[in-house]
Amino acid sequence: MNIDKYLQMDTRSISRNKIQKKFIKIISSLTNFHFKNCFSYRKILKIKKYNLKNNDLEKQPFLPATLFKEIILKSENDKKIIKTLNSSGTSGVNTSKIFLDENNAKNQKIVLSKILRHVIGKERLPMLIIAQDPINIINRNSLSAKYAAIFGFSIFGKNHVYLLNEKDEINYLKLNNFLNKYSKKKFLVFGFTSNIYEYLLKKLSLNKIKKNFKQAILIHGGGWKKMLDKKITNIKFRNRALIKLKISIIYNYYGLVEQTGSIFLECPKCNCFVTTPYSDIIIRDKFFHSINYGRGIIQLISVLPTSYPGHSILTQDEGEIINNHCDCKKFGKRFVVHGRVHQSEIRGCSDI
Amino acid sequence: MILKKKVIFLVGNKSISNEPLKPFGNDECNFLDEFSKKLAKHKLISDYPDLKALSFWCRKKNIQQLKNNTNQDKFRVGLGLLFHITPSNVPTNFFYSLVFGLLSGNSNIVKVPSKNFKQIEIICSLMRNILKNNKIKNRISIVRYENNPEFTKKISSLCDGRLIWGGSDTIKKIKEFETSDRSIDLTFTDRFSFSTLNSKKIITASDKNITLLTNNFYNDTYLYDQNACTSPHLIIWLGNKKDAKIAKEKFWKSLLKLVKSRYKISNFAVTDKLHHIDKFIIKNEHIKKIKNYNNLINIIELNKIKNFSHLSRGRWGLFFEIDLKSLNLLSPNINKYYQTLSYYGLDKKFFEEYLNNNNIRGVDRIVPIGRTMDMSFYWDGYDLKNILTRVIEIV
């Protein structure tokens, strides 16, 4: 099974069952590919006596997301690596390092556009980005997860305007110019969840703007840790966006820097994240058994990672598969994310 | 003595004596006896096994035994005033540190963890009660503070000795505060501990004895998430490979039964263990195989001990194991970070012979499995009842 071919497939004209079969083939061929091309990955699978002929999705091996923070993992020659992504690393000093070659970077864009097309449409829309203008970023080949996401998403917009100045304050002049020009028709608003909350939902003064956000499509993701600390739930967030800015079309997305591109968008009706033909989720209990009910550790599977062994990853997030009915059920598995795995109080005298 | 604000006195107050007394004074021994009895009767004692152990440890009989073990051929007095900086994660440790100081004839300022452990609250309220009209009330101050370098500086400059418990960062930080010329520092840092089991003895042991053994092993490890400095990380199976194979299986299976019924493992713990196992595989050669018992017991089996570092440590039930024909093969690895060697199916004579034939730079304690947490007056290689005193020679 060839990945390029898989990405070209018109997934809406093929039954889900068939897609699933092809998906599993891709994933197990990726396991074999990384086994051949990544020394460290091979070492792990060999010692754990993994059977490479396995075609069961649930039995595919997974790496812990944290491993990318401490170990350089790649399946491609250094010469061919064109870009490195770095996670924001909120929880520690170490940041994940993801190495992309040209093909991998290209595929990320293809998949992201396929996923977003259903939401935005084919046309590029004017885009307001809730961040500082990245003109100050000198080296675009080594990106933080935040700007990787901004650059990734910005290709689906046009007439980009960055809301914040270099002091992280709202630039009302720029904002009013943008709204004057574009607010009558559909436009995009994009940013990290915590930034949208901080600047649009909290700090923005409505007296200082002349137009409104009624036509906006808001896309946000990441940074929920800060929101949980402030006890802001997704529902509170949506309500506030609706009441303050009259924004009713909101898409929260969930994804890993290790699997940039194959994101999960929230269903506007049930607020669950939904899998796509490019990614899947497995919830695992403490014994790593796959579970269909109840809370567990999130494992994410993506067809994208080819230049590094990140196609099957055990995250440090907890989530749950949702089985009740919603129209989005026909597209894939549905799930909610509960936040980070909780570190209980450490006992003992060693503080490492 | 002037003490700054932001320091909470859980026991005692600013006025503290620095008079050196003779070790094992009657007042101090009586205080501990009363404390032990009252703690044993505390209504919450059954909720805290560590308090139970503490009460048992400072009972009269044990203190008397400690006293009898001291050599009384020299005239000794305490150093004066001791400053204890105790570890942040073990709730009862500060009291042991205090007892070492008190019984060797010193007065004590003890800094306890900033975390509000219930055990600390119970111990301190009991002490306040007992010390109210007690002769030794000016010999104990229990303090709690954070980010107060002025206080640490002041006490460091006044004390005759410091007992510093903690990771190497903590110790470095405290050592930056100067002490007087004659003052001493004793440091108790993160250590590496391991176990040695006689494979043959495991094979011949009755089911009852194996259950007893794994129960003891559980208390040494899982009770503190394998995170106490005395908890073993490396398990050595002494004997031939054939015996080791049978012994290992018998031991781990018995332990698994216990862990399944008693231990609550978290999602964080299992993802963290996976991370450490994968990282170890990538960075190390000489791995024979990986064993996983329900994510509750994880074992990395080694085929060579060479290059094994004391920095390889497990938590929440992650062990390294190896078959060795003789303990001598480990000796080149043993550095000053090795602390407790716990054993099964071996005896004192075996270790005396081992120590006679090997000059090792580490290992301060050799104890049967199940007794790694027993505190004694010897700790981290220090003979505390002597080192915290001063000898006055009379010729």
Write the layout of secondary structure elements.
The complex is a heterodimer of chains A (about 350) and B (about 400).
Chain A: H1 3-8, H2 16-37, H3 39-47, E1 63-64, H4 67-70, E2 81-86, E3 97-101, H5 102-120, E4 125-132, E5 142-144, H6 145-154, E6 157-164, H7 172-182, E7 187-192, H8 193-203, E8 216-221, H9 224-229, H10 234-245, E9 249-254, E10 264-266, E11 273-274, E12 279-284, E13 290-291, E14 295-302, E15 312-321, E16 334-340
Parallel strand pairs in A: 1-15, 2-5, 4-6, 4-7, 7-8, 8-9
Antiparallel strand pairs in A: 2-3, 9-10, 10-11, 11-16, 12-13, 12-14, 14-15, 15-16
Helix pairs in contact in A: 2-3
Chain B: E1 8-11, H1 26-40, H2 49-57, H3 60-68, E2 75-78, E3 81-85, H4 93-103, E4 107-111, H5 118-131, E5 140-144, H6 149-158, E6 161-165, H7 168-175, E7 184-188, E8 192-198, H8 199-204, H9 207-220, E9 232-238, H10 241-262, H11 267-283, E10 287-293, E11 297-302, E12 318-324, E13 338-344, H12 348-357, E14 365-368, E15 378-379, E16 382-383, H13 384-387, E17 389-392
Helix pairs in contact in B: 1-2, 1-5, 9-10
Please describe the structure with a list of short key phrases separated by commas or semicolons:
heterodimer, A: 352 residues, alpha/beta, Rossmann fold, 13-stranded mixed beta sheet, 3-stranded mixed beta sheet, 31% helix, B: 395 residues, Aldehyde Dehydrogenase, Chain A, domain 1, Aldehyde Dehydrogenase, Chain A, domain 2, 2 domains, 6-stranded mixed beta sheet, 13 helices
What is the total number of structural domains of chain A? 1
Radius of gyration from the alpha-carbon trace of chain A, in angstroms: 21 Å
Q: Total number of helical segments of chain B? A: 13
CATH class of chain A: Alpha Beta
Q: Under CATH, the topology of the largest domain in chain B is which?
A: Aldehyde Dehydrogenase, Chain A, domain 1
| Low-pLDDT residue spans of chain B | none
Query: Which chain pair has the greatest contact?
Result: A-B, 31 and 37 residues
Beta-strand proportion of chain B = 15-25%
Strand count, sense and barrel status of the largest sheet of chain B are: 7 strands, mixed
Q: Largest sheet of chain B, order of strands side by side?
A: 10-11-12-9-8-13-14
What class do helices, strands and sheet pairing of chain B give?
alpha/beta
User: What's the multimeric state?
Assistant: heterodimer
- Overall number of strands of chain A: 16
Q: What percent of residues of chain B adopt helix (DSSP H or I)?
A: 25-40%
